[in-house]
From TrEMBL:
NCBIfam families: PRK09636.1, sigma70-ECF, SigX4. Belongs to the sigma-70 factor family. ECF subfamily. GO terms for molecular function: DNA binding; sigma factor activity. The keyword NAD does not apply. Residues 7-69 form the RNA polymerase sigma-70 region domain. Signal peptide: none annotated. The keyword Protein transport does not apply. SUPFAM superfamilies: NTF2-like, Sigma2 domain of RNA polymerase sigma factors, Sigma3 and sigma4 domains of RNA polymerase sigma factors. This is DNA-directed RNA polymerase sigma-70 factor. One of its GO terms (cellular component) is DNA-directed RNA polymerase complex. GO terms for biological process: DNA-templated transcription initiation.
Amino acid sequence: MSRAERFEELRPLLFSIAYRLLGSVSEAEDAVQESWLRYTAAGAEPASAKAFLSTVVTRISIDVLRSARVRREEYAGPWFPEPLLSDPYQDPARAAELADSLSMAALLLLERLSPLERAVFVLREVFGFGFPEVASAVGRSAAACRQLAVRARRHMDEGRPRFEADRKEREELAARFLDAFREGDVDGLRELLAADVQMIGDSGGKAPQWAERIFGLDDVTRVLVALVPPFVGIGGVVEPRQVNGQPGALFRDRDGGILNALTFDIHDGRIQTIRSVANPDKLGHVGPVADAWAVLRESQRACGAEFDPEAPVTQIT
């Protein structure tokens, strides 16, 4: 097998590691490409291409993550990972770990870890690397990696909800929610939302967005019901999709352009959190990005409202 063939065989794994470390599709792809360049420049073929490339992509990602933390602290409003519609790496033996680690909620928990803790957790808990492999990848001793793993697991466990819905329950509840959402069914929405439900939006200041955070059953229901009629009336589409391994949805304009991606946290039979990624810089890998401001203006004209670019949006995204 040629070096290029070995790399292509490992590319899905490398991307999946990098994405979980960085929360960014574009940065993960750049890390994988840089790994290829270093692999081609390595001289003699490494004893294990998997070990070599996993180490390289991990170290590149750690460096990127350290610099990204400063940018994220200066980010306009809440920061969410870039939505991912499908994970290229499939391993039936670790399917549950892979799916759980891909969710928005899990990726946001990973943001609480130090770069080294995050790398150790992802390699060990998600991908099942042995501690000698993890130690080699992050440049620490196996004993130090064990301590990092313990701290990372503790932080992750502290942030997880006590009661997780199973996949079938999540899919059924999300489907019922989207049906009620599209129909503007107030009672149906209220049955599916938790009393302390919250909606959080990541627009990065670059797209119309509801207020950054909306809390409580009444306010969230009011906003959701206000979204649909003007949006659907101008040909907008709410498309159910798996987003980051969880039931979610894409908003598209009449031409199929992407406006935003929704994900849901579902616990104890109710939707607890609705997250929206509307920053166009985070959507280009999903497909052509729509002009969200133009869609907003058109939807407001359709319902007789006056367009105000300074007002919090409760219309389309």
